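FORM 7B: Structural annotation worksheet

SECTION A. Query
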Amino acid sequence: MERNIVKKLVENYTIDQLVEAEQALVEGEELALEVEGQDASEKLTYLLAAVYILEQVKLEGAEFYDAFRQYTLQVRESI
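SECTION B. Predicted structure
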């Protein structure tokens, strides 16, 4: 996972916009925003990460890098 792609999403979009993009991606619709990635699953991964991180930053007051680290730790634990 490329941190810069997630950071770009976090800096440029709201949680609502990212969630709408997730839903559109899952339903096979065209995205209203630009998400980098080689395929739909990679794009979805970046969207999910960005939503999690935005929630941590806005609701918990976390710093981007701390929230990103926490997200990646949770992913590793789940695998």
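SECTION C. Observations
The longest helix spans residues 40-60. The mean pLDDT is 93.

SECTION D. Sign-off
Analyst initials: ____
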